[in-house]
Design goal:
The complex is a heterodimer of chains A (112) and B (112).
Chain A (H helix, E strand, L loop, with lengths): L3 E3 L3 E5 L4 E7 L6 E7 L6 E7 L4 E3 L3 E6 L4 E6 L8 E8 L7 E2 L3 E6 L1
Chain B lengths: L2 E5 L2 E4 L5 E8 L5 E7 L5 E9 L2 E4 L5 E7 L2 E6 L8 E8 L7 E2 L3 E5 L1
Parallel strand pairs in B: 2-11
Antiparallel strand pairs in B: 1-3, 3-8, 4-5, 4-9, 5-6, 7-8, 9-10, 9-11
The chains are: A mainly beta (112), B mainly beta (112).
Chain lengths: 112, 112
Amino acid sequence: GESVGLHLPTLSVQEGDNSIINCAYSNSASDYFIWYKQESGKGPQFIIDIRSNMDKRQGQRVTVLLNKTVKHLSLQIAATQPGDSAVYFCAATNSGYSTLTFGKGTMLLVSP
Amino acid sequence: SQTIHQWPATLVQPVGSPLSLECTVEGTSNPNLYWYRQAAGRGLQLLFYSVGIGQISSEVPQNLSASRPQDRQFILSSKKLLLSDSGFYLCAWSPGWGNEQFFGPGTRLTVL
């Protein structure tokens, strides 16, 4: 089965810094990956996704990097803002017919 | 555009009482539907998913059940709640497999 983990439970950064949140997955058949942001008391919000035919994808202030060789992906947030403070989850699936497996989450704390 | 609703937003129930949480999706047809539970400070645990009316798959054996009486309605139920059923219950939908899941606002359940 799939297990998805995160390297750090909490990441503290200063406003304006770049943040990097890491995630490892175990199933080499996983071919679709998503990053979610969850603010306290709310449902997870989609941030960005990437399929296994890519190794990098950029959004607004966010970049996801995928290294299939070591089964690792990361979320980079540029110029982190206090509003970025939340728990970030990675999720992975085999898109053929499989549910998403979520990691445990990393709490990002942004101080002004 | 698509929207997903959950109610109630919060619920406090005594041990042994029944439970019914409702989730509805608007603006799409034949979605995959999911129920997750999230314990405090923890990741998301998939409870049930459904690919169509009357089709329910259970991921974790427990005293909860799910039903899908209509295409865009997903219900989570219990006949007798346990203390361990407390948590944040999230409903999600996706346009089939291999796509992002969109989450509802969640229901905070406290069993006393």
